[in-house]
Amino acid sequence: MARNVALFITCLTDQFYPTVGMAVTKILEHYGCRVEFPSAQTCCGQPFFNNGYHAQARDLAQRWITTFEPFEAIVSPSASCCSMVRAHFKELFQDDPEWNQRAKNVGGRTYEFVEFLEKVLQIDPSKLALKDRRSFTYHYICHLRGLGIKDQGINFLKQIGNVDFRPMEKTDQCCGFGGTFAMKYPAISGAIVEDKMECIVATGAQTLVCNDAGCTMNISGMCHRHKARVQTRHIAEVIAEALGLDLENW
What we know:
- The protein is of the alpha/beta class.
- It has two domains: 117 residues, Rossmann fold (3-Layer(aba) Sandwich); 119 residues, 3-Layer(aba) Sandwich (Rossmann fold), CATH 3.40.50.
- Helices cover 50% and strands 14% of the residues.
- It has a four-stranded parallel sheet, with helices on both faces.
- Helix 10 crosses helix 11.
- The longest helix is centred in the last third of the chain and has 18 residues.
């Protein structure tokens, strides 16, 4: 069982949702992992890759691989960046056998957070419980498909005690963020996220669980502009609360 774990925090989580990183770290430590934060980590190169700047993406991918190779497992709270490492790094090095193999090796040890709890640590969520009953719904991150993940996050959330789960219509529909897509096509992106917000509000849930910082920014921004009273949280924050972990004092 992998216990020497590196936290791949990702750019947006680091800058806008640091509490998520603290929650992930404390949860993994609670379950017996030794968590390290490699200070040399930078962007995984996804923005460059998505916009066709593959040479620049390769530079960042090589740095990322070199930084994380020493660890038994790499855990990320972001499905998007995890998908970049697992699905696209090897594409960047199709003509370089050495780096292609290194990309495959490190990609095989890189996990999305819930995936790691389920597959590696084999955590039983039914043993967790919130103090008070609250209603939740769940946004399905598009990049989870690239990881072969579909309902794990929903199933994990539904088993936590005192979670009143409210299913959402169009649950597998994109929120419209898509990284730079939201900046290149703001009108289309805005229409998509407004539709997503309406689906969220229709559930009547108090809290939306969204396990990707980009999607969280996009959805919570639309909710704020429309004064929709929906709290957005990462599942790590919900689990940390259920475990009684203190995220205020580090």
